[in-house]
Amino acid sequence: MNTGRKEIQRLSALALSLALLAGCGQGGSPAASSGGPASGSGASSGQGETYTIGVIQYMEHPAMDQCYEGFVQALKDNGYDNVVYDLQNGQGDTTNLSTIADRFVSRKVDMVLAIATDAAQAIAGKTTEIPILATAVTSYPVAGLVDSDEAPGGNLTGTSDMNPVAAQIQLIADLVPGVQTIGLAYNSSEDNSVLQIKLAKEAIEAMGLAWTEVTITNSSEAQQAMLSLVSKCDAVYIPTDNTMASAMATVGGVTTEAKIPTVCGADTMVLEGGLATMGINYYELGYQTGLMAIQVMQGADPGQMPIQYAQNSDAVTINGEIAEEIGYVVPEQYASCVVYPES
User: Phi and psi dihedrals of 51, rounded to 5?
Assistant: First the structure.
């Protein structure tokens, strides 16, 4: 855990402790969490009783895993030691997500944590009663999950992983002097990816540069798409796209062979084959979501809790191994941002 994360946790725990002292009610705060499969339907949150949280995760991927880990840690750090988590992975399949959502509704879990847009959409369409906390969703209004960021309405709120897209495009210009054409790769069926690409195109055009793009519908198409793309551009930009993220090992193989610098939407994507990013930390985003969940467990109405954005989104990460493999010399100003993935 890095120093920044520890400081966020320390301050968050302090703030929550003060809130608990100011608003202590009968029965105390609900105890919360150990983890493991849920063994019963939604228990109340009274002292000594379990609180069941169903977790619906779009697919297994480091960024989504970190969201879950941060969420759990936030509750643990604040004294919630009796929560039971029912963690279910949709494996990137909407049918699986629908089945998981039905399961949570039938079991009447106390709360649902939805990780990624498709997961949030799956559970939001099944219940208007169970509180839903979502994370790793780029735009809640675009995804049709809330009325607005400021006043979500209904039973759902959460945190956004909206990237500083314009700053990421500027990072490409900083890292690749003389860049003329930026390649864009994404799944055109992911609403949040389409939004990010729209912002990227605007930023690229505002800088007087050109763009070219490839789209895919599943990870098996990634290799062929990237082989086509790298012959037409000087650098590649990939947003926080679930499909592209799941194929980053393949994507990285193509871009590394072609010696094309690739800037990604998340640090987890960089560690799996990209060159660099300026983006958010998904563990911290999950932790932030966990703090929101505690407010709901204490009686707050999700529909009246504004969507929150990442508190830190300007950290640059550069994959030292990829830089060496493509013969890229990291500018001195970014030397301290170089990391090496664990072997």
Answer: -125, 120
Q: Indicate the length of the chain as a whole number.
A: 343
Enter the tokens of residue 36: 């493991």
Q: What are phi and psi of 269, to 5 degrees?
A: -70, -35
In this structure, which amino acid lies at residue 132? I
Give the number of other Cβ atoms within 10 Å of residue 151's Cβ: 12
pLDDT band at 311 (very low <50, low <70, confident <90, very high): confident
**CATH code, residues 165-279+315-339:** 3.40.50.2300
> Is residue 47 scored above 70 in pLDDT?
no
pLDDT of residue 61: 87
Alpha helices for 23-126 (secondary structure H): 62-77, 94-107, 117-124
Assessment of whether the complete model's pTM goes beyond 0.90: no
Phi, psi (deg, nearest 5) at residue 185: -135, 130
Residue 167 clears pLDDT 50, i.e. is over it: yes
pLDDT reading at 24 higher than 80: no
Q: Give pLDDT, residue 315.
A: 86
Domain ranges of the chain: 3-161+281-309, 165-279+315-339
Are the C-beta atoms of 9 and 77 separated by less than 8 Å?
yes
Q: Which of 339, 340, 291 is nearest to 315 (CA)?
A: 339
Residues 6+ apart with CB under 8 A from 273: 248, 249, 251, 252, 253, 255, 256, 262, 319, 322
State the average pLDDT for the chain: 87
What separation in angstroms does the CA of 127 have from each of 83, 121, 130, 277, 296? Answer: 21, 11, 6, 37, 16
Single-letter residue type at 106: S
- CATH code of the domain made up of 3-161+281-309: 3.40.50.2300
Q: Token pair 């193509």 is at which residue?
A: 254
